[in-house]
Amino acid sequence: MQRHLISAADLTRDDAVLILDTAEEMARVADRPIKKLPTLRGRTVVNLFFEDSTRTRISFEAAEKRLSADVINFTAKGSSVSKGESLKDTAQTLEAMGVDAVVIRHGASGAPYRLATSGWIDAHVINAGDGTHQHPTQALLDAFTMRRRLVGPDAGLGQDLSGRRITIVGDVLHSRVARSNVDLLHTLGAEVTLVAPPTLLPVGVETWPCEVSYDLDSTLPKSDAVMMLRVQRERMNAAFFPTEREYSRRYGLDGDRMARMPEHAVVMHPGPMVRGMEITAEVADSDRCTVVEQVSNGVSIRMAVLYLLLGGNEPAVTHPSPTTPATRRSASASELRTTEEK
Ligand code: NCD
Q1: Rounded to whole angstroms, what are the CA distances from 333 to 19, 126, 312, 320, 324?
Q2: pTM over 0.85
Q3: Does 138 appear as a known binding residue?
Q4: Ligand 1 touching residue 274 (CB < 6 A)
Q5: Is the pLDDT of residue 198 over 60?
Q6: Is 107 within any annotated ligand binding site?
Q7: Spatial CA neighbour of 87 closest among 123, 53, 50, 51
Q8: Which residues form the domain of 168?
Q9: What's the confidence (pLDDT) of residue 324?
Q10: Quick check: CB of 267 below 6 Å from ligand 1?
Q11: CATH number where 106 lies
């Protein structure tokens, strides 16, 4: 693993599988009455959010707290950023406070990369979404959700997504989620098809490691997972499609379309959903839709990433179940105890 997590494209297959496997162990912590591990005790993590977010910010915060890190939340609104402070000055302020990791979301593509490579700070940098560029932990939690649903939590350990067919539908042009997913899914051996109106596909998409189609109906029967993207109105400065109705009719997922998918196939959405636009309420609320599961899986993935970047070489979290080999159990006995027990 590298020092920072900036792009899903930086992860090797083995890095990605290690993160998914570690997240599987973290998920078991969430099933305990006390959902806390002492792993990051004494370490400080800052959540630096320059752009609106609900689930990603809360998810990182939950992950940090479950690993016992000290958490500082910074949002641009209400900070000196609104007085014109630069990213460099903000970074140096954080450095002076001795933070160990910065989780950054920024409207400008490349901001996390700049932070990680500028020399302004020593901390680990985790990209929580930058402009239309990357959102690596989202791609990881999506891959984790697919592996759990399509292969199984235990059967999936050590496995990638070889041969799985994933369809990503909608506003690819503005979507960092789509970019990160294409990169990571390709690394994990899946076959990805993008479906979107031509106006919502970026220039150069033909060089991406995926197929492109304009016809959702013919792609659905060949999909193991269908990921719907939000139409990102806030990033649109022109008319990219005639009307909302026209968009929904061609690229929205409703009950009839969902019925064309294979029985085992799942519907995914990173949230926030625009019900009635890219997805109908019937689909969003169906058992095949993993949107709520994606949120809880996000906490496990972010715990895994923080653990692997900051936790050093300590043994991975193990669980005192009868199936855990005795050697491994004793090696990490202190890890296992909750903060309260210690
Ligand atoms: C996405 C984002 O912010 O990139 N949401 C998320 O992280 N859960 C996608 C979106 O806003 O549509």
Answers
A1: 21, 29, 17, 9, 12
A2: yes
A3: yes
A4: no
A5: yes
A6: no
A7: 50
A8: 136-290
A9: 40
A10: no
A11: 3.40.50.1370
